[in-house]
Amino acid sequence: MTHEYELERYAAYFRGWCQAFGEHESIHSEDTGICWLLREDQSGFILPPQLMKSLYREVLRKSDTPMLQLGPKGCHIGAFRYPLSGAADQQGIAAIKETLENSSDSCLFMTSHFTYGTGTRIFTLANKKPLSIIYKEIGRIRIQLD
Q1: pTM of the model
Q2: Per-residue pLDDT tens digits of the chain, which is 146 residues long
Q3: 121 and 48 in contact (C-beta within 8 Å)?
Q4: In three state form, how does the secondary structure of 77-146 look?
Q5: Residues 6+ apart with CB under 8 A from 50
Q6: Rounded to a whole number, what is the distance in angstroms from the first to the last CA of the chain?
């Protein structure tokens, strides 16, 4: 069954700034190299570094963002394609679905966490808006979950 959501996108006012993801459970997918971060009010993922910039270009640096599709076979948005497989990836997608279903005001923004290194950014989907002192609204994105 396919579910579609529309979220606000946020970007930091200054390059490199972001709020902390906070306390969470993490699941690392050995199959795909993705690290899923899970907590009650938000979900996120860290892609291998060489892929994160490609995803940034499709999601954060465009005014008209294409639909992000997440499903058992992969992640697709614009020219970005990444295969997903295994139990960890399925658990991550299920957590994102739960996050999005628990609020009508879900949003997307980048966070960080000291555990993963200074330059690492977490692609975060949350039930509440990020700190307005750090982030500005940059548009909307549609997300389709299979």
Answers
A1: 0.89
A2: 788 999 999 999 998 899 999 999 999 988 888 999 999 999 999 988 888 778 777 776 666 778 889 888 888 888 888 888 888 988 998 999 898 888 888 999 999 999 988 888 999 999 999 999 999 998 898 999 88
A3: no
A4: ECCEEEECCHHHHHHHHHHHHHHHHCCCCCEEEEEECHHHCCCCCEEEEECCCCCCCCEEEEEEEEEEEC
A5: none
A6: 6
Q: Nearest 5°: CA angle at 57, between 53 and 63?
A: 155
- The owner of tokens 């808006």 is 129
Q: Comparing C-alpha atoms, which of 5, 12, 117 is closest to residue 61?
A: 12
CB contact set of 3 (below 8 Å; sequence gap of 6+): 97, 100, 101, 144, 145
